[in-house]
Amino acid sequence: MQRLYIAGLPVDNVSSEEAIAVLESFILEGSPHLVVTLNPEMVVRASHDAEFRRIVLSASLVIPDGIGIVLASRLLGTPLKERVAGVDTVERFAALAAKKGYRPFFLGAAPGVAQKAASTLAQRYPGFKAAGFYSGSPSPAEEETILKMVREASPDALFVAYGSPAQEKWIARNLHRLGVPVAMGVGGAFDFIAGVVPRAPKVIQKVGLEWLFRLLIQPWRWRRQLALPVFCFLVLREKFKG
Ligand code: UDP
Predict the structure, then answer these.
(1) pLDDT at 242 over 80
(2) Would you call 82 helix, strand, or coil by DSSP?
(3) N or C end of the chain: smaller count of CB under 10 Å?
(4) What is the pTM of this model?
């Protein structure tokens, strides 16, 4: 697996299929692995949040979730194979899990959403069974309850939807107490799978404008886009320095 660096943050050059194969290898190996789905906002966050930066650097797998990451890799002369969206990774993992009997735990999102996402996947992929689901919150007050719940469910993978950087910080804090081979932050993935938030049509995804579609659907997210000029600056600085 080729690992590149964008503004000092790692990202693995994996295709969608390879990402799933790596997740399965983590399950077979058994020890805890942190998986990050990287987008430009996260790169900017890491530039002023040392704890978050260390967490991303410690990840066993960093998936290129945002189109901006793929474009930056091209500009820097080390092109990534493709964008591997976190939501597609959860979906593909569910297809594999249905065949192999792996059971993921879905943590986060609004009450009822994780459960709805799990039942949608069970309909799409007969044989798929979640180890459990719980909305909860990333607040430290709930941590012990959630840890107990996850440990008792003994899942093969834990997908955490608390938004970034809360989900990665939550996972990093608890990774070694969870006893789960794969723990991955998935942002809005359960919302999309459950159909609570519509996903961009395939053609829009293909031309790299899923972020714009999402902005039109959820305009209150505009503030996050303020990170984009900073991301461009960080990438261009790297290009002209190197
Ligand atoms: N969320 C949550 N608890 C929180 C904050 C966020 O469950 O305290 C959920 C939210 O409901 C959504 C997901 O985390 O399902 C984050 O989605 P967002 O679109 O913000 O994440 P992104 O994909 O942009 O990282």
Answers:
(1) no
(2) coil
(3) C
(4) 0.97
